Amino acid sequence: MVLTVDIGNTNIVLGGYEQDSLTFCTRISTNLHLEPDQYALELKGLFSLHEVDARSITGAIISSVVPPITETVTQALRTLVHIEPLIFTHSLPTGVNICIPVPTELGVDLLAGAAAAAAHYPLPAVVIDMGTATKLTAVDENRNLQGVSIMPGLFLALDALVSGTSQLKGIATDTPARAIGKSTVESMQSGIVFGAAGMIDGLLDRFEEELGGIRTLVATGGAAAFVVPQCRHKIELVPDLSLDGLYEVYCRVMNEKQS
């Protein structure tokens, strides 16, 4: 089994691949204060819950946008499965060309999603990653990653709305029955859910103009399930896209070592 680990600002997502198929996927909260042994205990519990034998893990790759805990999780995996994880960086073979002036400015999570899109979907493609922030990544027909648009994520926007006002309270991110809300809750749900969908639709129109057309629209991330059904563009929801990209890169690295 190859273990893929995607460390995000809110969650750490883990997936195990066997014979090119994702056989288990789980997540834990990102915690800056845990020590390596504490992370190892958490991971051991998750492996037990999903009936994963740690001895079956023969390789691992870690992507992280939270540098302070990258080494912590790496040490936890060394302790638990006795292997040296591959750290996903811009220098690894991803199958895409980063066409921005400073490639290292690109988040590795976005690069992983682009690698998956380029490997498995018709191009040009736009990857919509809806996590703490909402990011749209453009990959053209020649596997060139042309750039990104970043805006506040759905949950971040909701938190800002509630914390920045005196009379608006937290709500569930349910889809409202109509855009014109009839209550405070409906009005907030409309603005948050339909507003996010509208921003994505508007940006996709602009991306399409700049790319000269789009063949694939894929979305991932925790908020995607709420927003994608409300978008007017046809977008495929792929919850494990980033993990697929990590596994793709891991296989490329291993193939290069063997050749």
Protein structure class: alpha/beta
Please give the largest β-sheet.
Answer: 6 strands, mixed
Range of strand content: 15-25%
Per the principal axes of the C-alpha atoms, what is the gross shape? globular
The low-confidence parts are none
Order of strands across the main sheet: 6-9-8-7-10-11
Structure description:
This protein is α/β, with parallel strands linked by helices and 259 residues long. It contains 7 helices and 11 strands. It has helices spanning 36-49, 67-81, 108-120, 154-163, 184-211, 224-227, 241-258, and strands at residues 2-7, 11-18, 21-29, 59-64, 86-87, 97-98, 125-130, 133-139, 144-152, 216-220, 236-237. It has a 6-stranded mixed β-sheet with strand order 6-9-8-7-10-11, sandwiched between helices. A hairpin with a 4-residue loop joins strand 8 (133-139) and strand 9. Helix 1 (36-49) crosses helix 2 (67-81). The two termini are 21 Å apart. The model has no long low-confidence stretch (mean pLDDT 92).
Protein traits:
259 residues, alpha/beta, six-stranded mixed β-sheet, 39% helix
Summary?
The chain has 259 residues and is of the alpha/beta class. The chain is 39% helix and 24% strand.
What is the strand and helix layout of this fold?
Layout: E1 2-7, E2 11-18, E3 21-29, H1 36-49, E4 59-64, H2 67-81, E5 86-87, E6 97-98, H3 108-120, E7 125-130, E8 133-139, E9 144-152, H4 154-163, H5 184-211, E10 216-220, H6 224-227, E11 236-237, H7 241-258
Parallel strand pairs: 1-4, 4-5, 6-9, 7-10, 10-11
Antiparallel strand pairs: 1-2, 2-3, 7-8, 8-9
